[in-house]
Amino acid sequence: MVRKQSPYEDVQKQSRQHDPYKIIEPTPKKYLEGSAYEVIYNHLSYKHEVLDKYIETNTAVFWIKKDDIFSVATTLRHLGYECLSEMSAIDLCAKKGHFELFYQFVGFSDSCKNRRRVRVKCILLPNESVDSLSFLYRSANWSEREAYDMLGIAFDKHPYLKRLIMPHDWVGHPLLRSYPLKGDEFAQWYEVDKIFGKEYREVVGKEQRDSARVDEKDTFNFAKIGYEQGKGEELKETEEKHAFKKIPFVKDLHKIAPTILKKRL
Q1: Which of 11, 36, 89, 191 has the greatest number of beta carbons closer than 10 A?
Q2: The NADH:ubiquinone oxidoreductase 30kDa subunit domain covers which part of the protein (predicted)?
Q3: pTM given for the model
Q4: Which parts of 174-246 fold into alpha helices (H)?
C-alpha cells in the first residue's frame, strides 16, 4: 500500500541540526573545459542537451533532462563507463518543489584514464517517473527499488518494481522529508497489528520510537552494545570481548590512540 505524501513539507527539520555559528562552505566547482572530461561532454552534447557541466571532487557532473537519462547512460556505457556504482535521489520538494536524481558512473578501462568518475543529475517533479536503467546496469535494479521504496520514485519498465527494505504493505516512504522521523500513526502500530492483531492495541500499546526515552539501565527492554548482558539481569559495568578467528593480515585497532587519515590513500 502506497500513500501519497502531501503536502511536501519538511517535518524532519530539528532546531539542533542547524548551528548558527557554523557555516559550511560549498564544494568548489571547476570548469570542465580543457580537462580530460571535455571529450565526454563533446560526446554527450552531440546528441543531448546538457543543461550544466562542471568538475566537483575530481568528478565530472552533467545536468540533463530526465527524459534523456536512458540514452545518456547508453552513451556513457559505450564510452567505457560500465559500472553504475551509486544511484539515488535527494528530497528537495519542501524547498524547491522537486527531487534531485543522481547517477554515479565509474570507468575502469584504459580509455577512462584520468577521467574515472562521471555523475549525471536531473530534476524530477513529484509524481513523475523516469526510465529504468536496469537493462543497462544490473546494479540499477536494487538501487531503483530502494529509491521507490524510500522516496516513492517510480521507474518505467523496471522488471520488478517492488519494495526492497520496508514490508510490502507499508504505508508511506520513510526517506521523504514529509515523513515523520519517529514514524506516523501506521508505523507505531504496525508490529502490534501484525503480531497480536488490532484488537490487542489497548493491551500492548504503541511501539516506543522516541530515542530520548531509552534507559541504559533497563536490561529488560534495551540491549547495551559491547556488553554481554542477559535480558532482565543486573547491569554489568565491565565490557566483555568475544574472541574471533581473525584473517591473518587484519590487525587490532588502536582504541587508545587511533590514527586519523588526513587524506584518501
Answers
A1: 89
A2: 62-184
A3: 0.72
A4: 185-195, 201-204
